[in-house]
Specification:
The complex is a heterodimer of chains A (425) and B (524). Chain A has 425 residues and is of the alpha/beta class. Helix content of chain A is 45%, strand content 16%. The two termini of chain B are 49 Å apart. The chains are: A alpha/beta (425), B alpha/beta (524).
Chain lengths: 425, 524
Amino acid sequence: MAGPMLLKESGPREVFCGLTSIVWLHRRMPDAFFLVVGSRTCAHLIQSAAGVMIFAEPRFGTAILSERDLAGLADAHDELDRVCRELLQRRPEIRTLFLVGSCPSEVIKLDLARAAERLNEELTGRVRVVNYSGSGIETTFTQGEDGALAALVPLLPASDERQLLLVGTLADAVEDRQMHLFQRMGIETIRSLPPRQSTDLPAVGAGTTVLLTQPFLTETARLLSDRGATVLTAPFPLGAEGSRRWMEAAATAFHLPDERVAAVLDPLMERAQSALARHRAVLEGKRIFLLPESQLELPLARFLQRECGMELVEVGTPYLNREQMAAELALLPDDVPVMEGQHVEQQLDRVRASQPDLVVCGMGLANPLEAEGIATKWSIELVFSPIHGIDQAGDLAELFSRPLRRRQLIRPGLHPSSPDATVHA
Amino acid sequence: MQLTLWTYEGPPHVGAMRIAASMRGVHYVLHAPQGDTYADLLFTMIERRGQRPPVTYTTFQARDLGGDTAELVKRHVREAVDRFQPDALLVGESCTAELIQDQPGALAQGMELTMPVVSLELPAYSKKENWGAAETFYQLVRNLLKEQAPANSQHDPRAWQHQGRRPRVNLLGPSLLGFRCRDDVLEVQKLLTLHGIDVGVVAPLGAGVEDLQRIPDADLNVCLYPEVAESSCSWLERNFGMPFSRTVPIGVGATHDFLVEVHEMLGMEPPAPDEGYRHSRLPWYSESVDSTYLTGKRVFIFGDGSHALAAARICSEELGFTVVGLGTYSREMARPVRAAAKALGLEALISDDYLAVEAAMAEAAPELVLGSQMERHSAKRLGIPCAVISTPMHVQDVPARMSPQMGWEGANVIFDDWVHPLMMGLEEHLIGMFRHDFEFVDGHQSHLGHAGGAGAADSSGLSDIPGEGDGALQWTADGEAELKKIPFFVRGKVRRNTEAYARDVGCREISSETLYDAKAHFKA
């Protein structure tokens, strides 16, 4: 059968856990607080992944388990109640409190659902408490957002009103733009999950058509469909082509006339093509290797291959949901290796052997590869930057062309004469 | 259970990673879930290393927990040994693995590996990063050297005198993710070399297993960073009779004391007392007339134990500042920090809660903050100039230029780094004075970042620093106008003093007269 070559491997991995997604989720909902119930490692992880400590008091924190909690000297549930009360007293503006499970809390089987239930009773009308797991023994990086959104689904009010529901965190400006375009195409009611205020939850029901903005929301999609919503399968809105097909999927579901959709999208496509041309000139024919991390790898690979002319050496993904990725897989060239899971050492061996022009990888691997002479793009930037939609296609391409352009600018003057010598090791 | 927003130290296994990554030929197999791999970025991004830390994570998942995680550990140990062929192997676990009790160290020791295998037990729910670094270094030193330990140690630090060679010392403690360690080592090496003292082993930074085995060949150990090396130095003293120097050479006075300590231990003539004056610019810069404005500047100090102690001494003895707050997040160093604070008439703040530190900072109303990156942010919010003296590390704390804290050059760096933010504070005052002139352009307040600008200068001290919270006191328009004329960096203090005075004398309305009365009262 033609199509990409689907492979699997396992071994040591080099990926973030689901807690990391708190870094962008807390910014989306300024009236929500994310309280990780875990260890000092969890606190250190979020702090390090966030990069800098810029907030006076961030809207995320960790209830650090101590020996007393583990030895049963203190009742972990009593302690958690105390920490939550202390926190909410400090932050009276918080309306939703997410209790986030971690590796240690999962291993000691601390029942956060029960804790949330108990706290909800106590705090009725003031703060809503929900729980989900961001633990690294169960979730990878972006799956944390899936968990958080899935935890909100049971709380959504029911309504059969005809509406389009965009699911997944987008940058506010990008989301506004997509909503505006959908409205121009003729969709009247468009709402989003997560909402911008945690209390402003959208309704869901038989009239709801769900369009996923991100490819990592499997569980949320399943729960929404259980609530009666129709979940569309489409390419994801990365790149001009993917974004167009993503919007067209909604247009079809709402029976919008083709000419009206084309009237909105055609000029955008034209503009995107000219924005892409400059970057395509840099990227065309270059070979790219994507290591698994954000689950955005498949749509990105599709965009880079079809719209930027890049050659795909290997496309890694931490986890592959074939059903939700069907449209993306269909657009990948035959025989491209799509690797699910990771053995980081063996994968790096393949990177070195294939000598790609660009590698997409996590922050732990980027500088070491650069020092070996291989250009890189950090995957975490792709979840923080506004890259979705037809209008952002040029900006998305630039994230990949910039490292290559930078090398052309500074390399000849700085690079050591021997290509084998690693620098700054 | 403790509510934590930002932390000063990572978990203890990150300390172990710092030791492994600092050394050559050491590999660390860490029984940990995938999320723990974030720690690599501390080295590759913050330290900007062009090499992955030598760590193999077992990255077990929930589905592995029902099965044989011990076998998983052994497989990763075997793969790591085959691939990296280390000279020594560290094996340990992170917080989650500690709960499932696979005892990876014991498993690896049972595998009949050819290299030394050091099992690390770092309690993740009670200890922290620096402790983990110290324990790891100690376990490595002990495991590699215990066979060599003589039955009755007869180490003579003056033996070099009869052996026809120069005296030789080891520098112990410098590590990756330690504050300016890279440059401190070079500076201390230079300092000792100029006095005819050779440096034998520098460890863990840059050392291999064979270097650790050479440690007993030196006459003396220099404990450069007690947070990391003190336990190892003590063990070497107990088992090999090797004495170690305890003075951390940060600042002109401490550098001199350090040299005297090392010279005396080695049986050498100590250097002349004016050496610091001749070799460092700090003493003269501090004496020069330009520095008179530094007199009595109120300084708040918080950081790791060693750097906070050093800062307190430099501020009070070398720069003529007044230390108004001193504290540390290093509980292991609480005792000496408490003693130093007491000598300065203060009570030390021992805490790892950055909000408590920020509150203490606001309360002390300093004119300069010396702290970690956390205090830099707090100080920025309070509109107080700040210089960074301690970990936790930020990419800015690994500058491209040579920038030590130790030795004569370190003292020069410190003078610049601590005094420049204050000069900018003064500049700010001038901007405030001239802000009604037509030449004035908003946004000149470089050290305040986004909080700068004339608008910020207007509000700081009036609304940002509230009074004691009772609504009984009322500032009249003319009182407020007078208060605004006071430079912003002392305005908060003047406001609080005036309000305290008003309450004392039972005055409810504060006018410009009350302000002058209060001034006279406090100056008297």
